[in-house]
Amino acid sequence: MSWKETYRQWAPFFVIAVIGALIGGGLVMAYGQKFAEKPPAMALQESVVIPGANATNVSEARNTAIVRAAQAVGPAVVGITNKAYARDFFNRKVVVERGTGSGVIFDKRGYIATNYHVVEEAKEIVVSLADGRTVDGRVLGVDPITDLAVVKIEADNLPVAALGDSDSLLVGEPAIAIGNPLGLEFKGSVTAGVISAVNRSLEIGERRFKLIQTDAAINPGNSGGALVNADGVVIGINSAKIAKEGVEGIGFSIPINTARPILQSIIDKGRVVRSYLGIGVLDKNTAARYGYELTTDQGVYVAKVDAQGPAAKAGLRIGDLVLSINGVATNTVAELRGTIDSLAPGSRADVVLQRGGRNITVNILFEETPAAQ
């Protein structure tokens, strides 16, 4: 959003605020003495010192876990501006802003976790730090499958967020979202709620994702920001929100235990290494989208076999039904993808097929996904 659009949007509220302040000032002058004579409603609790630029003494009641979590992680949450090339009125190539999202510094060397869709097709990346600094960044690598990416910056004295353990989350415990909703005008915004559900399964495309569900407000621009627990550690990377009429308070975050190895693989190799079977498959639902009809609910139909892939080497054919891998049923494309993703490249697995009305078992050596896949 440009500064002109922002001014037009918020100018009426500024005028109201100024008028309110003038009227309120008059009321304070008229009744200030009366108010001053009233005794306090309750005695102040024991105060604590809140560190930071605006250090102040506050009561224990105000120094909540949310306050402490925001102070611990907030400085490590950044704004990420995605810029791309476009043509102006004179057909000159210019750089324009495509959008703004959030990110989390998780390593003092300048590694920032964010969402793939925040940096998608970016030609330039600008990172806005919480201390006011603005630095150039570069996309180190992305993983569209999980909507994760790593941005690298070169800067000194960077704050770093601690990463927690998302497997230990409890439904109902506090959840704090920190990011930049609606752009950098609202950078560092903190919203709070609870962990609504863990291991929430969503199918997006041909893959199934395990996500954290929270009712902490997550709005456009929060993408890539931090989901934090009451201990002040990051337990998720905010990624998605269900935006439908009548639906409120349903946001999703990528569990940090899922994100951690992906981020590390991007740092080490520039991409995420996954296992590869080398087949194209259809289930009952995906077949219908392509005009085919499958009469069975069991297994996935092999519609394509890569001649150089592990499946071809093990003897799989077009027309086979893949029923299970290592005892895990594969009745949908998402189930097959999820099971393959759980296997490390170089591992072996027993694959049960149905061919010609009978079941057969083959042992397959899974290979590393080719870089172009």
Strand content: 35-45%
How would you write the strand order of the largest sheet? 3-4-5-8-7-6
Quickly give the CATH architecture of the largest domain: Beta Barrel
Q: What level of helicity do the residues show?
A: 10-25%
Which segments are poorly predicted (pLDDT under 50) over 5 or more consecutive residues? 1-49
Computed over alpha carbons, the radius of gyration is 26 Å
Tell me the series of helices and strands, N- to C-terminal: HEEHEEEHEEEEEEEEEHEEHEHEEHEEE
Global structural class: alpha+beta
Outline: globular
What report would you give on this structure?
The structure is a single chain. With 373 residues, the protein is α+β, with helices and mostly antiparallel strands. It has three domains: 74-153, Trypsin-like serine proteases (Thrombin, subunit H, Beta Barrel); 166-269, Thrombin, subunit H (Beta Barrel), CATH 2.40.10; 275-368, PDZ domain (Pdz3 Domain). 22% of the residues lie in helices and 38% in strands. Mean pLDDT is 82; it is low at 1-49.
In short:
The protein is α+β, with helices and mostly antiparallel strands and 373 residues long. The protein has helices at residues 3-37, 65-73, 116-119, 256-269, 284-289, 310-313, 333-341; strands spanning 47-50, 56-59, 77-87, 93-107, 111-114, 124-128, 134-143, 148-153, 174-179, 189-204, 207-214, 226-228, 234-241, 251-255, 275-276, 279-282, 300-305, 321-325, 328-329, 348-355, 358-365, 367-368.
